[in-house]
Design brief:
The chain is of the alpha/beta class and 402 residues long. The protein folds into 2 domains: 10-141, NAD(P)-binding Rossmann-like Domain (Rossmann fold), CATH 3.40.50.720; 146-301 and 303-342, Dihydrodipicolinate Reductase, domain 2. It contains 10 helices and 16 strands. The chain binds alpha-L-sorbopyranose (SOE). Alpha-L-sorbopyranose (SOE) binds next to α8.
């Protein structure tokens, strides 16, 4: 791709996918220039989807200039500088590698891929492309929640001291109903894994981001509670109960994952990711305990960060509730006055802002595909651990030797 010239201050975007993530990314491309000063103006050139009518309806809603039905057409277009991948994990490696080789920047939804091998191919292609001034980012948006960005600052400023623990849960309950229909997220061939890769990946990335350390070993279990579900309707939508006598198909991924982790810096982690936490809708919770302090975060109260300063006198020490909406807080100053709050979509807008700024500056955006590969390695280690029955020690029963 030719270096950005003063005249070409636009960034032509082509997006593959128009469902939930497609909508979240589309709103981010449209909203970012309205609230942040960007060195390049995103131009919503084309939305790509195999169903031209469905993609066209979403394109009209978000102001995409054209519709394509084959991602290869996006990659071939000279008016497109960046490919945004919002499709199931099984499609990521082919699209990302082709786009990078064609000189297009890439933003790819998480998890990076469905296997370590695919993630390695993507990371290698991204490393080669960066030498040509072509950059890639993986879409772990929770890092860009102001509260978690503030938490990272507290850690890097030493306010927590030596990190000892990461306590991480991602709790959803959209599959508790056994008649919720099948979707691509429940098919290993498309999704790679279930709760582990879909929402557990967020926990692993957030833990790496907050601690600045990498998970080096894990021991885990995976569980599928409901192993067949009604076959979804024509458009395979999530949610709502399929009729009880509908044809049922196999669930080929985990419904829940739990694992312990050791970090390079000596910290200990406990992780849980499940779609069966009845009553919890999108409770991504992180607590980091250090020698001098601690932070606690729950995405269901995403504008708040709990902070404990262990250096305070015992008489006044306690977790305090920081409302992370001050102009001096990460990203918050671009939006509303203090206390008005942000939502789920803002992490996607912040992602676009940081990506566009990095591209214009000729710098590697974060998280990189190498960061995404590091997450993929952890996911694969948890799967390997879960498959190794020798890792599970049966509790002795009455009369049995322990
Ligand atoms: C799962 O339901 C999901 O949509 C994830 O795929 C997203 O990454 C997360 O942001 C919200 O929950």
């Amino acid at each position: 791709m030719s270096p950005m010239t003063e005249t070409s201050r636009e960034l032509g975007v082509g997006q593959v996918g128009y469902a939930f993530m497609g909508a979240a990314h589309s709103q981010a491309w449209r909203t970012a220039p309205s609230f942040f000063d960007l060195p390049l103006a995103p131009r919503l050139r084309a939305l790509c989807g195999r169903d031209a009518a469905a993609a066209g309806a979403v394109a009209d809603r978000f102001g995409w200039e054209s519709v394509e039905t084959d991602w290869r057409s996006l990659v071939a277009r000279d008016d497109i500088d960046l490919i945004d991948i919002c499709t199931p994990g099984s499609t990521h490696v082919e699209i990302a590698v082709a786009a990078l080789r064609a000189g297009k920047h890439v933003l790819c939804e998480k998890p990076l891929a469905n296997t370590v091998e695919e993630a390695e191919q993507m990371a290698d292609a991204a490393a080669e492309a960066s030498a040509r001034g072509v950059y890639a980012m993986v879409g772990f948006t929770y890092r860009r929640t102001p509260a978690l960005s503030l938490a990272r600052q507290l850690v890097t400023d030493g306010r927590l001291g030596t990190i000892r623990h990461v306590r991480a849960q991602y709790l959803q309950d959209w599959l508790v109903d056994p008649d919720t229909p099948l979707s691509w997220r429940l098919d290993k061939a498309q999704a790679g894994s279930g709760a582990l890769g879909d929402i557990g990946a967020h926990l692993v990335d957030a833990a790496h981001f907050l601690t600045g350390s990498t998970i080096s070993s894990v021991s885990g279990v995976l569980q599928t509670f409901v192993d067949t579900r009604p076959v979804a309707g024509e458009h395979g939508t999530l949610g709502g109960s399929g009729s009880a006598d509908a044809e049922r198909g196999p669930v080929t991924v985990d419904d829940a994952a739990a694992f312990t982790a050791r970090f390079d810096n000596g910290a200990l982690g406990v992780f849980e990711a499940t779609r069966f936490a009845t009553g919890r809708k999108n409770a991504m919770r992180l607590e980091v305990s250090g020698s001098d302090g601690a932070i606690a975060f729950d995405f269901e109260e995403m504008n708040l960060l709990q902070f404990y300063d262990a250096t305070e006198p015992a008489e006044t020490a306690g977790f305090r509730r920081i409302v992370v909406t001050e102009p001096t807080h990460p990203y918050a100053g671009a939006w509303w006055p203090p206390g008005h709050g942000l939502g789920y979509e803002h992490g996607f807008t912040h992602q676009v802002v940081d990506l566009v700024r990095a591209i214009a500056a000729g710098e590697q955006p974060s998280p990189s595909f190498a960061d995404g590969l590091a997450v993929q390695r952890v996911l694969a280690a948890v799967e390997a651990s879960a498959l190794d029955d020798s890792r599970q020690h049966r509790v002795s029963q009455q009369g049995e030797a322990p």
